[in-house]
Amino acid sequence: MYHTGxxxxxxxxxxxRKRESLMPILQEIITKHxxxxxxxxxxxxxxxxxxxxxxxGTASFYTFLDTKERGRNVIRVCKTITCSMKGKNDIISxxxxxxxxxxxxxxxxxMFTLLETNCIGWCHKAPAMLINDMPYTDLTxxxxxxxxxGYMR
Amino acid sequence: xxxxxxxxHEIKVAEGTTILDAxxxxxxxxxxxxxxxxxxxxxxxxxxxxxxxxxRTLVAACAMPVAEGMEINTNxxxxxxxxxxxxxxxxxxHRADCTKCYKNQNCELQTLAxxxxxxxxxxxxxxxxxxxEIDRSSPSFFKDDSKCIRCQRCVRTCSxxxxxxxxxxxxxxxxxxxSSFHDRPMSHVVCTNCGQCVNRCPTGALVEKTYIDQVWxxxxxxxxxxxxxxxxxxxxxxxxxxxxxxxxxxxxxxVAALRQLGFDSVLDTDFTADxxxxxxxxxxxxxxxxxxxxxxxxxxxxxxTSCSPGWIKFIEHKFPHMxxxxxxxxxxxxMFGALAKTFYAEKRGIDPSKVVSVSIMPCTAKKFEADxxxxxxxxxxxxxxxxxxxxxxxMIKQAGINFLSLxxxxxxxxxxxxxxxxxxxxxxGGVMEAALRTAYEIITGRPVPFxxxxxxPVRGMEGVKEATIKIEGTKADWKFLEGAExxxxxxxxxxxxxxxxxxxxxxxxxxxxxxxMACPGGCLGGGGQPIPTNIEIRKKRMEAIYSEDTHMAIRxxxxxxxxxxxxxxxxxxPNGHKSHKLLHTHYVKRESY
Lengths: 153, 593
What we know:
- Chain A contains seven helices and four strands, in the order H-H-H-H-E-H-H-E-E-E-H.
- By secondary structure, chain A is an alpha+beta fold.
- In chain A, helix 6 (88-99) runs parallel beside helix 7 (141-152).
- Chain A is elongated.
- The two termini of chain B are 47 Å apart.
- In chain B, strand 1 and strand 2 form a beta hairpin.
């Protein structure tokens, strides 16, 4: 959990308080904190004079605007057909083994969240995954361990 | 003007008219579902598709504007097949337990299914496999997502008419749903319980929480003395659910029906509406005196009316810093409740614990109001059960009463006498007009300077209304108001209330007294009124209300003989000790989500 503090006010100053400012504000909160807390969504609603349900409605439409608590690094393994055929399940089980969590969960130290995602456009280099904004491709159970270890430091 | 052909009939209509409205002019019926006269076009249910010559796909008649030379077919094979599939797709995601559903026979989806999709269905039932839970948390209504077809009328209502948006569209694809903030229970979000969504829901996804069985139980219980009160707006709308056209006043028939249902005493909320005017008028004048004569900075002006429980919850959520501006008067329903188990019980010699107090309201928020912990000043729950106009119609049907042929009857006494001033509480501007009729007379000893007591500037359907009344020829006690201009404003529909309160709160506008009603048109357009409710029907109910006022022998609240008597016998004086205990209340700040 992070504290909203003055962040939303500052973002509203930066992006404006119109309805169309909603997305850039939410995206910037996500860039900083990986997910939207209830407090942050209520603060955005207050700044923009819209309802919290509308902010939640918008956020819940977009997979990458998470409204559940996420770790510092969000791993999204592509679950779409090509990656599935090229061994995505092995990648997932390797990740589950080394992180000791299941898909959808966050490590107790809040360092990693493991998720699946729909196609991220790397079918030609399947299986693929994202860690935060960075794509990793042509994964094998061996390489994925190295990639994740890079984030453990 | 644009010329087009619909089903081979040529018609000229104004540019910008939709195909749907053009067809209406030719008396061609195109079915609709997400469309509602009060709301913006959504075009998401697709039931209104029609074939346009030369177009690749079918077009939505509700959303498509007409064009020169357009040729439309509303009843081709392609259209019929498409509609059938569309209705069946909607049904595949709808729990069609029609015989158990509260909206049975009053459901727009059911009507369409009846027209387009009888027999075997070709699509899978998608409801059975999903873990739906009915949200029963609100005391006013149920939200059952398994019956929701996501037409979004409720979402548009909550946003466009009420500026509340307690519900919005959340998630996407097959997970799409109408959701509160984080899917919290409706009782824990900004929802005002106004029921405008309930009034517009085409299915049984949003329905009022009904207390019909509890009321029957009380009526059948020989130990109980069941009193019923009827709100002003019910008498001009109840007929719509029982075979009359909109705008027919059925006051006398309603009283007769209530008596036949078995209520022990049929009384009138109008009585406490008059009492509200005396209490609230006195409160306003006291506030003015404190500010203008004593220079008391702590007294808040303008004063807002407090009869509309949807509005009360709205201000508690959205403008808690303005709560001191709310009149402390309870609504007429709650004043009635507090008196029913004190004054009435005492006078009739009945043990108040045996009194069951029922109210018939055009409103779903009244159910919430009756449940507020503040509303127990009689020592009991002041109002036991609140029924909507629609629920009363159901009871009348259940009892097998032939409403159309009932002879008119009169209200019982005590607490059954009313005036024209009380009746107009049911229309936007009515409380203001009633208050002015009384306040002006208290100050000057003369009636308001309007022909026939009709204060026309505060009437009508405009969202925000303003009026200024110059006070001249004051009595000795009110000399400080001599020559003063009393500035008043009126808003109905919370979207308008929001504008007005904002203008006041930011200092852009200043008034002495403001009337606010949560629902469009005031109580006559309440969430508990017959379905459909739309602008034409609201206008007809409004005409009926003012005609009821004109036909009343007494048209000023302070002249109601029972109001005069209750001060003499029981309350002693307006805003006095007993009034404060029984007839006034306080408010609470609520969360902003």
